[in-house]
Amino acid sequence: MAATERVEARSTKRASTQKDSVAESVSIWFRLLSCHTLMMAELRRELENPRGKTSALAKVTLPRFDLLAALDHEDGQTLAALSRALLVTAGNVTGLVDRAERDGLVERRPDPSDRRVGHVWLTTRGRSLVRKLLPLHAGQIHELLGHLPIRERRALRRALGALRDHLPRTRA
To answer: Which of 26, 65, 105, 164 pairs as cysteine with 126 (C-beta 3.0–4.6 A)?
Structure first.
């Protein structure tokens, strides 16, 4: 085989390998999306139509749960911070907070050093509700992932952590 033929063969093999690598990356992307979609649909169904749950826990939407959980994690956030944390627009977060405030789950308080800025705080009722929902939500997630052997779950967690660490961070 002539030198030029060997170079062409290596080049063709490299292009084929790169094409396979790109296809594999796209396949991983689609698997992540499909798993996310399936899991979110199940979590939403369980939250919004709970089986045998008391009326206090009935019909909590997933966006409302996310709002309450974000505030339970860090109470007193601004609307802008909540928008970034929940990955929704400012308009969406305003509507979520308006409805949660109307229902007595959160309250807005002005910033003492800048009256243009408001902070959102859980009320006693909101904190009580989210503290009841968090263990139920954790149980639902475990139902979805618990069938995987522990070694596979740990490997998946490590792989997803490595992916997350590799991705560029969005700028605030």
So the answer is: 105
In this prediction, residue 172 has a pLDDT band, given cuts at 50, 70 and 90, of very low
Q: How far apart (Å, rounded) are the C-alpha atoms in residues 100 and 123?
A: 10
Overall residue count recorded for the chain in this entry: 172
**CA gap 70, 75 in Å, rounded:** 8
Q: What is the largest CA-CA distance in the chain?
A: 80
Segment 16-26, tens digit of pLDDT: 688 888 999 99
Q: What integer pLDDT is reported at residue 59 of this predicted model?
A: 72
Give yes or no for a contact between 116 and 99, defined as CB atoms under 8 angstroms apart. no
Cβ contact 73:81 at 8 Å: no
Statement: residue 1 has pLDDT above 80: no
For the chain, domain boundaries: 1-49, 61-172
Which amino acid type is present at position 140?
A: Q
Of all residues in the chain, the percent with pLDDT exceeding 90 is 65
* Distance, CA of 112 to chain centre: 32
Quick one: which H or E segment has residue 108? strand 106-111
- Compute CA 132 distance to the chain's CA centroid, rounded to the nearest angstrom: 20
